[in-house]
Design brief:
By secondary structure, the chain is mainly beta. The chain has two domains: 87 residues; 85 residues, no CATH class. The chain contains one helix and twelve strands, in the order ββββββββββββα. It has a four-stranded antiparallel beta sheet with strand order 1-2-3-4, with no helix packed on it. A four-stranded antiparallel beta sheet has the order 5-6-7-8, with no helix packed on it. A four-stranded antiparallel beta sheet has the order 9-10-11-12, with no helix packed on it. The termini are far apart. The C terminus is likely disordered.
Length: 173
């Protein structure tokens, strides 16, 4: 079963999650459908591929042989694997910011899906939402700023709504 395709921004590749023999891995093919290859190492399974804006790196949600979920980046070469973040719960909906400095994702936190932003250099994720609604699949404005200083100025979401306009993420005149 193949799922969750992601075109590289330069249009050269398609990455996708593929289940083969009961194992989910990240595969990459040329845009014409040829040259399929597994790009996740044997030690890490993967899903939810997301290309960096420059098409040089591929982030994905993965889990190791102890089933611990995490966020990984491969690239620019397939053998260059970096673990950015390890979690204790489900992760999903991975996305890059337009400037390539942040990854956003959903995590199952305290019985609810919440949105987070993680610097691509690693570190501690910044929680974006705090409410009882099911927050998922964040759309990122090209000038979004997820730094801890900026997030302190964001308005809190109203309960029951999975979206908001973030003051620091709006374009400036």
């Amino acid at each position: 079963m193949d799922r969750l395709p992601a075109w590289s921004p330069d249009g050269k590749y398609i990455a996708f999650a593929a289940v083969r023999n009961g194992v989910e891995e990240i595969h990459r093919i040329w845009s014409d459908g040829t040259g399929e290859q597994v790009i996740t190492p044997q030690s890490v399974n993967g899903t939810s591929p997301a290309w960096s804006p420059d098409s040089q790196r591929l982030a994905f949600i993965g889990w190791d042989d102890q089933e611990q979920p995490g966020i990984y980046i491969i690239g620019p070469q397939p053998e260059q694997l970096e673990s950015l973040y390890q979690a204790d719960s489900w992760l999903g909906s991975l996305n890059w910011s337009a400037d390539g400095q942040w990854l956003t994702f959903t995590a199952w936190t305290a019985g609810n899906h919440e949105l987070y932003a993680l610097p691509v250099i690693g570190g501690v994720p910044t929680r974006i939402t705090v409410d009882k609604s099911w927050d998922d699949f964040m759309a990122i404005h090209p000038t979004a700023d997820f730094s801890p200083t900026a997030t302190r100025t964001w308005p809190r979401l109203r309960p029951g709504r999975g979206r908001s306009l973030l003051r620091s993420a709006l374009p400036t005149a």
